[in-house]
Amino acid sequence: MQVIITDSWLAKTRAFHLSGWSLAVSFLTAAFALMLASALMYHWIFLKGAREGWPVIGSLVRMVAKDEFAQRDKYLRENIEVLARRLGEMQAQLMQLQSLGERVSTLAGVPMPDFQANKGSGGVLVMSRDLSLEELQVLLDVVQGGAKENVDWLTVVESRLLDQKIKKMMIPAQPPVALAVLGSSFGWRIDPITGQSALHTGLDFPAAIGVPIQAAAGGVVVTQEFHVQYGNMVEIDHGNDLISRYAHASKVYVKKGDLVKRGQKIAEVGTSGRSTGAHLHFEVLVNGVPQDPQRFLNAGSRIATVK
After folding, report:
1. Does 215 share its domain with 145?
2. 199 close to 184: Cβ distance less than 8 angstroms
3. Cβ neighbours, 10 Å, residue 221
4. pLDDT tens for residues 28-79?
5. Can you give the residue range of the structural domain that contains 44?
6. What is the pLDDT of residues 227-263, one digit of tens each?
7. Helices marked H in 127-274 — which ranges?
8. In Å, what is the CA distance from 135 to each residue of 95, 131, 138, 164, 188?
C-alpha cells in the first residue's frame, strides 16, 4: 500500500509505502490509543459527575452504593443472628452446668455461691428487635464471666471431693487377705494355746503360707520388726491416730518409712510368733486402743455396694 502526502505551501510531496504487517500494527496502535483515551475521558467525567452530583451519574452512584451497603448490612445481620443463636445455646448450657454444680456441691457438702448469671428474669414480650454488635458483646462478656465463675467453683468442689476421697482411702476398710474366711473374731475367746479365757484384740484370717497380705488402707509404715508374740509384724499409720497391724507373716516386703497405698502387697501369710497355724492376725488401733476391725471392714463393704 502506498500513501502520498502533498504539501501545497511547501510544494512538496511525500510518499510512504506500507506493507500489510505495518498497516495492521498501525491500526492496532491507533485503536489502543483511542480506547485508552476514551477510558480516561469516561473515568474523568464519571468522577467529576459523582463529586459534583450530576443528575444521571449521581443517581447511578447512589444506587450502586445503596445496593452495596444493603448487601453488607444483610451479611452483618445474618452473622449477628447466627451468633445470637449460639449465645442462647451457650446460656442454656451454662444453666445446665450450674444445675450440675449445685448437685455436685451438695455431694461435697459445700454451699454453692449465688451466681449473677443464674438470676431469674421474665416478663411480657411487647416488642422485639435484633441485637446490635455492642449488645452482643456485652452478653458474650456476661456468659464468659459466668463460665469462669463456674470453672473456679467446680475446681473448689473437685478439691473438696478429692480431699474426702483421700480421707476415705486412709481408713482401713479393705480386707487384708482376699477371699479369706474369718477364723476368730474380736473380743473374748478361749485362748488356743493356754485354753483360758482371753481378750482377742483383732481378727484372725486362716490362709495358706505365702498368700499375699494387702494394706487395708494407704499410709506410712511405722513398724516392721519381729515381735515375740506377733512374729513378723507390720504396722501402718493412716493418720488421725489410726494404725493397722498385720502379724505372723512369713515374708515382709516393706520397711519402716515406706509409703504404701490401699491394696498394696506388704507381706505374706505365715505362722511366725505365738501361733498354732498359718493365718493373718489383723488389728486396728485408735489412739493405741484396739478396736473391732470388723466395723471398718463392714463400712468398706457398704461403700463398695453403694458404688
Report:
1. no
2. no
3. 19
4. 887 888 888 777 776 666 666 656 665 655 565 566 566 667 777 777 777 7
5. 2-52
6. 999 999 999 999 889 999 999 999 999 999 999 999 9
7. 133-169
8. 20, 6, 5, 44, 78
